Amino acid sequence: MGISATRLAIVLLPLALTGCLGNDGPGPTSFVADSSAQERYPENYRVEILAFMRTYLNNPVGVRNAEMADPVVRTVGGRQRYVSCLRFTPRELDGNYREARERAVMYVSGRLDRLVENASDVCAGAAYAPFPDLEKMQR
Fold first, then answer.
1. Are the beta carbons of 82 and 42 closer than 8 angstroms?
2. Helix-then-strand count for the chain, H and E
3. Residue 94, in any domain of the structure
4. Residues paired with residue 105 on neighbouring β-strands, in sequence order
5. Cα dihedral sign for 62, 68, 71, 74?
6. Which residue of 52, 62, 85, 108 could cross-link 113, Cys pair, CB 3.0 to 4.6 Å?
7. Which residues pair with 106 in a beta bridge?
8. Does 56 map to a domain?
9. From its phi and psi, is residue 38 left (phi > 0), alpha (psi between -120 and 50) or beta?
10. What is the pLDDT of residues 99-110, one digit of tens each?
């Protein structure tokens, strides 16, 4: 007895959709639509980073030793992306400071797309400069 085309489609559709769920790089899949066009330089990256960090950090007040590398094109997950790297020491919820953190900020089409927490490979060789605006953040 043959299987009908409708039943076959119902069985194969979930398998076909699982291919859409792949992850090709560190961190979550891009939140911004991916394009094959040349990436644009993120003109407002400082403003976007500060706005994002206000929500990312539990306590944005009291950040120390903030440094940032200007965006450069790097290959991440097989794609060319502008990436800027951050290094900073946040104040913990208990008021103490622990080790510095390094994060990579990725851009798609000139806009902040995501923050990569495991940034050691992405940020290898980054040229950091002081980023005092991060240290001056308020709630």
1. yes
2. 3, 5
3. yes
4. 84, 115
5. negative
6. 108
7. 83, 114
8. yes
9. beta
10. 999 999 999 999
Q: What angle do CA 118, 107, 126 make, to 5 degrees?
A: 55
pTM of the model: 0.70
Under 8 Å between Cβ of 123 and 72 = no
Per the domain annotation, does 62 fall within a domain? yes
How far, rounded to the nearest angstrom, does the alpha carbon of residue 92 sit from its chain's CA centroid? 22
Helix (H, G, I), strand (E, B) or coil at 25: coil
Note whether residue 75 is domain-resident.
yes
Give the total number of structural domains in the chain. Answer: 1
Q: Which is it for strands 101-108 and 64-76: parallel, antiparallel or unpaired?
A: unpaired
Q: What is the pLDDT of residues 39-59, one digit of tens each?
A: 899 999 999 999 999 999 988
Give the integer Cα–Cα distance in Å for 5 and 9. Answer: 6
For residues 73 and 79, the answer to whether their CB atoms sit within 8 Å is no
Q: Which residue has the tokens 């639509």?
A: 33
Distance, first Cα to last Cα, the chain: 68
Distance CA 48, CA 111 (A): 8
| Domain containing residue 103 | 30-135
